[in-house]
Design a protein that fits this description.
The structure is a single chain. It is globular, with a radius of gyration of 20 Å. It folds into two domains: 125 residues, Aspartate Aminotransferase, domain 1; 231 residues, Aspartate Aminotransferase, domain 2 (3-Layer(aba) Sandwich), CATH 3.40.640. Helices cover 39% and strands 16% of the residues. It starts with 6 loop residues before the first helix and ends in a 5-residue tail after the last helix. It has twelve helices and 13 strands. It is of the alpha/beta class. One of its GO terms (molecular function) is pyridoxal phosphate binding. It comes from Microvirga ossetica. This is 8-amino-7-oxononanoate synthase.
């Protein structure tokens, strides 16, 4: 079994903690425990026995997660170590080596690399930049044929922050129904909308939809490493059997805090905190781009990231590396998503960090005559 290097994750691991300004994150600036639990409940954690707890997720946590998905129950939820484990065990449970998987790009590249390592036939479906990173229904129909086993998308998108239109949604659902394929939707940025209403979940739109998500992005709790699968009973049951071989279960402290985050009133308060920050920072980036004729973007609809396009000759990985080395600012290279002449910058950071990062990017460009 050969694993390709997961370029974005490997580079973040190597460099994100050694820079002054880290703009590679795509979530909201993290919450503190005191923003999640009342002081008395937080203090009670000091007396908590650190046992295994519920390896598939505490009942109150699974119920709280299910409440965010229409018609879902706790039985439709499996708690995982982040969305990465959720995606991994969902793929392992439902897809066999040799099965065809259609993967919409640009995207977080886990399904692509992991699927290939597991012997799956991964075929990429390019989203259309000139249509706001939407699905091309005709290309989708041609690509699915009659043999596709799973279609994988992210909504809202990564790295684009685009939300799939109703036309794109229907095209994906029609293709999945026609071929009886599973539709795997990473919804980790749902709840982090910048301008519009909350993104409609795909869960419940078709009986073979599998949703993955976590507390890492819109919920501003990446350190909890808590994610989930929401899907039909058979998916939850089969994925749980694989989790017995991977991590067995997530941490008891993360589950307690996660249940508090996902309690409906708390959930909406935490999401509102993030949306306010994202909206303010998106406006800052919009103003920055408007004053620089070598840069462009499509304002993201959701998520803590901006995907910026530039029109000069410099490989995006070179830009990322040299900006980090010279200015101690770290951005994501577009090539790590398979798209050149772009960088992804985090807009969920503290506003002063974003402003300083953009200022240092200006200095970097000016020294090369690219301002």
């Amino acid at each position: 079994m050969q694993f390709e290097t997961f370029l974005m994750e490997r580079n973040q691991t190597l460099f994100e903690n050694g820079v002054e300004i880290n703009l590679t994150e795509s979530g909201v600036h993290p919450c503190a425990i005191e923003e999640i639990l009342p002081a008395q409940e937080a203090q009670a954690l000091l007396r908590l026995p650190l046992g295994y707890g519920w390896t598939d997720g505490r009942p109150d946590l699974r119920s709280a997660i299910a409440s965010w998905y229409p018609e879902a129950s706790a039985a439709n939820v499996l708690v995982t170590n982040g969305s990465s484990e959720a995606t991994m065990i969902a793929l392992m449970a439902m897809i066999d080596p040799g099965d065809k998987v259609l993967f919409a790009v640009p995207n977080f590249m886990q399904v692509d690399g992991l699927g290939r390592a597991l012997g799956m036939d991964i075929q990429r479906l390019p989203l259309l930049a000139d249509r706001g990173w939407q699905v091309d229904p005709e290309a989708l129909k041609a690509a699915t044929g009659d043999s596709v086993k799973l279609i994988a998308v992210t909504n809202p998108g990564n790295p684009t922050g685009a939300v799939l239109s109703q036309r794109s949604r229907e095209a994906l659902l029609d293709a999945a129904r026609r071929t009886e394929a599973w539709l795997l939707v990473d919804e980790i940025y749902r709840g982090g909308e910048i301008d519009g209403a909350e993104t409609e979940t795909f869960y419940g739109a078709y009986e073979r939809v599998i949703v993955t998500s976590s507390l890492s992005k819109s919920f501003a709790c990446p350190g909890l490493r808590l994610g989930w699968i929401v899907g039909p009973d058979v998916v939850v049951e089969e994925a749980a059997k694989r989790q017995d071989y991977t991590t067995i279960g997530s941490g008891i402290l993360s589950q307690i805090l996660g249940a508090a985050v996902m309690e409906p009133r708390n959930r909406e308060r935490i999401l509102a905190r993030g949306r306010a920050l994202l909206r303010e920072n998106a406006d800052i980036v919009e103003s920055w781009v408007a004053k620089r004729n070598r840069w462009s973007w499509q304002r993201p609809a959701a998520g803590g990231m901006a995907f910026l396009r530039y029109d000069f000759e410099m490989p995006s990985e070179v830009l990322s590396n040299e900006l980090r080395e010279e200015q101690s600012v770290f951005v994501v290279a577009g090539s790590w998503f398979g798209i050149e002449s772009h960088i992804r910058i985090g807009i969920g950071v503290k506003t002063e960090h974003l402003e300083e990062g953009l200022s240092r990017l200006d200095r970097f460009l000016a020294r090369r005559g690219l301002a």
